[in-house]
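Supplementary notes for students who missed Thursday's class. We covered one full example, reproduced here. Read the sequence, then the structure, then the short commentary at the end.
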Amino acid sequence: MHCNVLLVSSFAPGREELAAALRRRGCNVLFATGEAEAIRLGRSVSLDGVLIESSNPDASVKRLREKLLRQRPGRPVLVVTSFAAVRQSLELLQFGQGDYLIQAEQLAEAMVPRTEAPAGTAGAPERAVRALVQVLDLLVGLLEVDDRFFGGFSHQVTRLTRAVAEEMGLDDAAVQEITIATLLRDLGKAGVDHAVLLEPSAFTAEQAEQMQKHVEGSVRLLEHIDFPWKVLPIIRHHHERYDGRGYPDGLKGREIPLGARIISVVEAYMAMLSDRPHRAAFAPQHALAELERHAGTQFDPEVVEVLIRVVHKFHRHSRSAQKPRVLLAEPQGEFRRLLKMRLLNEGFEVVTATTVEEALALVRDAEPECLLADAELPGGGPLELLRRVRDERAWAALPVLVLSEAEDRLLKLRALRLGADDWLLKTEDLEELVARVENILAREAVRRGEGEPPAPRGITGDLENLPLPDIVQVLTIGMKTARVTLVRGEARARLWFQQGRLVHAELGAVRGEQAFYAVARWQRGRFAIEHNVDCPEVTIEQDAMYLLMEALRRMDEESAGAAAS
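Structure (token representation):
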């Protein structure tokens, strides 16, 4: 069950116990320590329930509960008290026969929405959901097809976003929710001046403000629709930053919906791979390095790690510095437009021609990696373009796929004998035609020896750029489960985090807090963060931020002692 629960508490032990019980039931847990933060999150994030933990449920707590109930009508808002917080306190005397103790697991069970509730997609048949996604994808693709910089962009972002969500093990409802939010996220750009979208230099302050308003514009266009998915919070917050410096609400860490965190990383990656008015496309490895460099500040580091894994696992052209370029020589405008859109959606750059002479000029000037040519292209007899391409020695290795209106056995044999790589019927499914192009280019890549690079493990970097205190803060705020490996010269240390808590450290034979204190001195070296790695043992009970402060205190004392001597 995919649900969001807000936990309002300043009592750390009770908060952790409740949060762990909720996560075991598949809930995403957000934290607030006071009224202002709780109200802000209640306004910004779609919540399925709220737990207010208080050792003294006075009038102010009751007022907070009433405000949250008004914000999210129909959602449970419960006030609870941890027995551990009051067992040795006079506050225990305020409780009477109308107050009850309940175990954390049972409380978590009560907060999780029932499967028959409207949240999720229980009422939406699987075929209807798939059809909706395909129709949205088609409509958005048609809007982008003639855009030089954004043609096929939304489809590529959506496909990669879905792959990342599935790789993270999210349930079907969550994947559908994120997929639909991805397709609808930028509808608000219809209200942005087109000149701003095509601005060739850095935005002015006024242009940046106008661009940022597209997020709220998207929400306004969609807020009257009763979606069976929580797509609006994802759309609203997909430009938030992990460190809280994004817009529109300055959410940070796990306050940002997971779907929004995924879209933020994927959209940035795909944008870097695309030409823009002010810059050329990045090489994929450069783009991945940029994501790693901003992991923990702009982006959720766990999502960055998963995206890198997905790219190395599935992206056929991950080593290409540019998108594969296809020349589509096709006189029929409607068919040319539809096939161009499908090719753009799959990440190809497409140039088009309508005559033999236009196509030959583009073969020479645009240097395509594949040619799709109509068998009866104007400017000569049947297969004239194929014949003239094969007559040129410089173009002998260019893959050529011939398109035909109908099955003509004699013409097909002639094309194959002239050196065509494939014969395609225009009546075939467009996705099958695109798949044939992908297969041809994949074989060409193997022939050229462009093997896939080994997938890296985790996020790597230099401690000079991301010091250990920042790493600890990133993993703590994000409630991450991860292993951090630190290397300085011949020394190697490892730290384990369990749901944001530092639970184990080792440096050679040294274990626990002493190992952490030793590593906290390192200002140079390399680090690698690997998420979802289980911890072998627990040797640290203290809070990680306390340990950092203690490490700094010890270093200050040593510095003062050295100065005195």
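Commentary. The radius of gyration is 28 Å. Residues 212 and 247 are 8 Å apart (CA to CA). If anything here is unclear, bring it to office hours.
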